[in-house]
Specification:
alpha+beta, 15 helices, about 10% strand, globular
């Protein structure tokens, strides 16, 4: 944004954050801060394609050691697998399931917290950024085959046509990005097996240090948010965190909290955000939070907040 003539104070206005905090490697933006920053970017630039533009300016070097490791992989497929393994080293507001099956390579993009009207910006930036990264890593043009998004067609799709140059379907049930499976075989011009091994070891070390330095409660919260709509049992969460269920239960007791309390806390936060930032109906919100009936969701919500859904949204 500085290149566009806007200072950090303008971009961070209303968040209470400063540039030093943002640049700290341990910084993690809260949903409310992220929303404010994006609103500021859109308001300042008045550019409907700003997400696409920012994504096109992203550099693989912005990812630090993870980016360097990707540049020394043998193929684009090896780079893809590297990003999958060490995704925790990147800052994200959407989760992706990157799959190769039935002769297709595609990625589903899902909100890690409700984005509401900001979803187009986030999807546009992510897709544009994906093109930039794949092109930089393989050192050749990277073409996507098709983009499907859940939001409505914007008035001006010129930025889409120029940047993505592929069929784009709006008002779809899922956010999906399709690639040419043959591109997985693209060789990396800077491939170096020895350097790649060293970089991956550093990525593993960094990921481990980040996990060790994070409280267990925060690690569980992150795991729940990274896969929205999935609320595993304690045993399933223990397996995801690579520890026994008894060990997980004992460590949570040491932190004076239960797994159920963490689940309820995450569900409450998400419920409040869904009510404020989306137009989803209570039944739909309850389903996303793992409830099989709107009645159960309403009762749980009252236990969490002491109030009714209608206290937070008049149309419920």
């Amino acid at each position: 944004m500085a290149a566009r003539g806007f200072g950090s104070e303008q971009v961070l206005a209303g968040t209470g954050l400063d540039a030093a905090q943002i640049c700290d490697t341990t910084f993690r933006a809260q949903p409310k801060d992220f929303r404010r920053i994006v609103h500021n970017i859109i308001r300042l630039t008045k550019d409907p394609g700003i997400g696409i533009a920012l994504g096109s300016e992203f550099k693989v070097s912005d990812l630090g050691i993870l980016g360097y490791a990707a540049l020394t992989a043998s193929t684009l497929d090896q780079s893809r697998e590297l990003f999958r393994k060490y995704i925790a080293l990147t800052e994200r507001v959407i989760s992706t399931t990157n799959e190769v099956r039935d002769g297709k390579w595609f990625s589903e993009m899902r909100e890690m917290f409700p984005l509401g009207e900001l979803l187009p910006f986030v999807i546009e930036e992510f897709v544009s950024q994906t093109i930039s990264l794949a092109s930089s890593i393989s050192n050749r043009p990277f073409q996507i085959l098709e983009l499907r998004v859940t939001y409505s067609r914007p008035r001006d799709i010129t930025p889409y046509s120029r940047r993505f140059n592929c069929p784009i379907l709006f008002d779809q049930p899922r956010n999906l990005l399709f690639f040419d499976i043959q591109t997985l075989n693209f060789p990396i011009s800077l491939a170096n097996a020895e350097v790649f091994k060293l970089c991956e070891q550093q990525c593993q070390l960094n990921a481990g240090q980040r996990a060790d330095g994070d409280a267990l409660v925060n690690r569980i919260r992150k795991a729940l948010i990274e896969k929205p709509g999935e609320f595993p049992t304690l045993e399933q969460m223990a397996a995801r965190l690579r520890m026994g269920s008894r060990t997980l239960r004992r460590r949570l007791e040491n932190e004076d909290v239960t797994y159920q309390e963490i689940l309820d806390d995450v569900r409450r936060d998400l419920a409040l955000q869904y009510l404020e930032f989306t137009t989803l109906k209570p039944k739909e919100i309850g389903f996303l939070l793992g409830y099989n009936s709107v009645g159960n969701f309403r009762r749980a919500f009252k236990n969490w907040t002491g109030g009714k859904l209608s206290d937070y949204r008049q149309d419920t």
